Request: fold
Amino acid sequence: MERPDGPLIGFACAYTPLAVVSAAGFTPYRVHPLTEEPDRTGRILHDNICPHVKRILDRLLGGDLPSLAGMVFMNSCDAMRRLYDAWRAVPASAPAVLIDLPISADGLSVRFFAGELERLSRTLAGWGGRTFDPAELGRQIDRYNVQTGLIKALAERVAAGTLADGPARLQAAFNRAATAPVDETTASLRKLLAEETVSDPGGVPLYLFGNVLPDPEAFRLFAACGARVMASDLCTAGRLFQPLDAGSGRERLLDLAAALLGRRPCARSFDPGRPGGIADDVLAEARAAGCRGVICHTVKFCDPYLARLTAIRGTLQEAGMPFLVLEGDCTLRSIGQQRTRIEAFVEMLQ
Reply:
């Protein structure tokens, strides 16, 4: 599978520096856990492991991936590290690199991560034969920032209810932006934004957060249950597309490292100055979007999210914000089994 911007480099984490990959002459391609392949992962990894990891490996084992020039893994959790090990054990798999990812954004962590980004640049240069150019990295960051601005505008239209089938189409746009060249995605986003304004059917406004939920049909299921996803924070959605101020000149990798680590942390990250920051952020965003309730969707066996849910639940309960937790296995079938719970939650809020 060839792309105008160059061969594909796979990735599986929202912290992946897409601009670095593009600057090396490649097209970043997010390997979503969306596949009809049967479960083959059990012969390599334990069955009780993150379904996100399992489905990605199932795609590799079943030949359900485009041709990849390489795969970038961020060492975001133990399950992702195990995926890196398993990937390299599969014959004929694309070459892979594991980039260590700090859990905080202090000065030492930023400098360490800048070193990891430099190592990634050298690895990509070895795969593609193009040496690292800070000026080219700057141009790619600018391109992604334009794309991010369009995605933000689209999300605002969805929140305002002026785009038909908004939440599902927004997720489809996220998926395309994570797998296609920037210029191609930018053109499709402009086309979406130019669509005629409509009045999207209402529903109970809810805030959705968690890790992996890439299937647009899941958002149509929420709508069918009477929910309207007003805003979200997911690894497979807006968390990947945030503006980056990466400075200029020779310290660009250091600035990029600071920008990436300085984003609002997900469950696997930690801000020592705000131990309960993730709970406070969820509440603040839900209130800002005018939501009446919060849903967390997390894949099974995700220790970072399961460890944080107690604090999040406590903060939301104190604030009088209703809260529902859903666990899934990265299939539409699993979230479909939660339909009755979603409908009951929505009915309670009406």
